[in-house]
Amino acid sequence: MKEIKNILQNQIVDIKSAGTFKNERIIESPQETEINVLGKSVINFCANNYLGLSNNDIVKKAAIDAIEEWGFGLSSVRFICGTQTIHKDLEQIVSEFHRMEDTILYSSCFDANGGLFETILSEKDAVFSDELNHASIIDGIRLCKAEKNRYNHADMNHLEELLKKSNSNIKLIATDGVFSMDGVVAPLKDIASLAKKYDALIMVDDCHATGFIGNEGRGSAEYHGVLDEIDIITSTFGKALGGASGGFISSSNEIVETLRQKSRPYLFSNSLAPPLVAACIKVFDIIAKDYSYKKKLEENTTHFRNGIKNIGLDIKGKDHPIVPIMIYDAKKAVEMSEKLLEKGIYVIAFSFPVVPKDEARIRVQISAAHSKEQIDSAINAFGEVAKELNII
Ligand SMILES: *Cc1c(COP(=O)(O)O)cnc(C)c1O
Description:
Layout: H1 2-17, E1 34-37, E2 40-44, H2 57-70, H3 78-81, H4 85-98, E3 102-106, H5 109-120, E4 126-130, H6 135-143, E5 147-151, H7 156-165, E6 171-176, E7 178-179, E8 184-185, H8 188-197, E9 201-205, H9 220-223, E10 232-236, E11 247-251, H10 253-262, H11 264-267, H12 274-289, H13 292-310, E12 314-315, E13 322-328, H14 330-342, E14 345-346, E15 348-350, E16 360-365, H15 372-388
Parallel strand pairs: 2-14, 4-5, 4-6, 6-9, 9-10
Antiparallel strand pairs: 1-2, 3-11, 7-8, 10-11, 12-13, 13-16, 15-16
Helix pairs in contact: 2-12, 4-12, 5-6, 5-10, 13-15
This protein binds pyridoxal-5'-phosphate.
Residues 108-110, 134, 136, 176, 180, 205, 207-208, 236, 238, 247 line the site of pyridoxal-5'-phosphate.
C-alpha cells in the first residue's frame, strides 16, 4: 500500500505541475441556468443542458410518478428480472425517433460504445475511426479484434485512402456526430458517399446532437439529410434528453439482438432505474410535440453567436449551441474564465492537450432555458473582460 501511495502521489504532483489537474467545482443547487457555486449565484454556461430539461417540472413529475408506480430500482440486469414494460416502451420510442428497427438501453453512452465494437466485429473486419472521436469510442474499439484504422479529423481523402487499402470483410466507419470541443457537425454526407462507394457501414455517436440538431431534432444525420444512410446510432440521455443518465444503441434487428445476447456492459450491469426510464419517455413525448424548447435554443444560440462576433472575438462552428470562443493563448484563456466568474458568468477554458496547442478557448454552451437577459449579460461580460485583457 505504501508503495502505490507513493507512486500515485508523485503522479498527482506531475499532473498538477503540468497544469492539467482538474478541480471539481461544487454546485450547491439543481442544474439550472442559475446555480450556486461557492456560495455565489452565477449564470451557468457549461452544462450539456441544451433543451433546458434537466430541472424541468414536467420531466421531474414523470420521474416522481414513476417511482410511485414502478419503484426506485430494479436490483437486476435486464435479462434476469430487470426489464419492465417501460424499458421496452422507451426502446420502441427511441427506435421510431431514429427510424431504426430496434434499440437497446445501456447505463451510459460510454457503456454503449464500450460494448458495441467487440460484440459485432471479428478479426476479419475493420473499423475506421476519426482521430478526435470520444474516449468511449476509442476504448470500445481497443477492445475489439478488428483491424483498426484512425483517420485524420474529418479528412475524407484520408478516410478514402484507408478504405481503399483495406480488404477486410465488414468495414465500419465510426464518428462523433458533433465534435464537442469545436461545436462542429461531422461531414456525414461525404462519409455516407464514401460508405456507399466502399460498401462500409456507418456508426454515429450523437451525444451532442440527439434531440436538438436537425429539423426535428433527430441528430446530425438529419442535419445533413442522410437519416436513412446511418447504420448504427449511439447516444446518451445524459445531455439534452433530461440530463440524468443512460445511453442507447439504435440499429437493425440483428445488430441489436446480438448486443442483447453478447454485449458485456449490457449483460453484466444493472438496468436503468424506472424513474429515469419514465422521465426519458416523457422527454421524447415533449420534444415530439413541442418545438418551443428547440426553437428557443436556436434563437439563443444565434443571439449569442452574433453578439460575440460583434464584439470582435473569433468563434468556431456555425450554428451549434457549443460556442468555442478562441483566445489561442492558454494562460489568457484561464485568466479570462476567472474574470468572467468574478462577474457571475460560469464558463470553462480549455487548452492543450484537450485542444491543439495555441488553440486555447473558452467553451460556452447555450441552453433553451437561458433568458435573453442572461445571454446579454454574458456577451457584455465577454466584451468587458476581453478589453481588460487586450484581446480586442
Ligand atoms: C458525453 C458523451 C459520451 C458519454 O455519454 P454518457 O452517457 O455520459 O456516458 C459519449 N460520447 C460522446 C460523443 C459524448 O459527448
